[in-house]
Amino acid sequence: MAAVQMLYRPGTWLLGTLLLALAGCSSIDARTTEYVGAPHAAPSSAANVEVLRREPLRAHDRLGEIVVDASVEPAPPIAEVEQKLREEAAKIGGDAVVVVYDRIAPVSAYVSGPLWDRDIRTIEGRKLKGIVIKYR
Prior knowledge:
By secondary structure, the chain is an alpha+beta fold.
């Protein structure tokens, strides 16, 4: 009876719902590296940063690179991945980010099962790399 009463407590129900929601959340992690010897620009506006699939013909300098790791199941909306690229590029003064690598690849593995009958399973994730550029 006590367990049933706990399920109906407002705080307990909210906590359980929150834990379930977090367990199914997608994730996006990014690392930005500025190039040594490259121009160092003031931060720019993320709203003005372009996401490109090819290097532009317009004159530009390469400022650095961004590596994004994103979950696959569940996958975040692509608009969130692009927004993350814009935000990271803006931090180092970029006008655009050119995506040079975008793949789903194994990011880790784990072993399960008894000693005599083990199974190795991989966990996949999205790997994305972009070069941050500043127009001249």
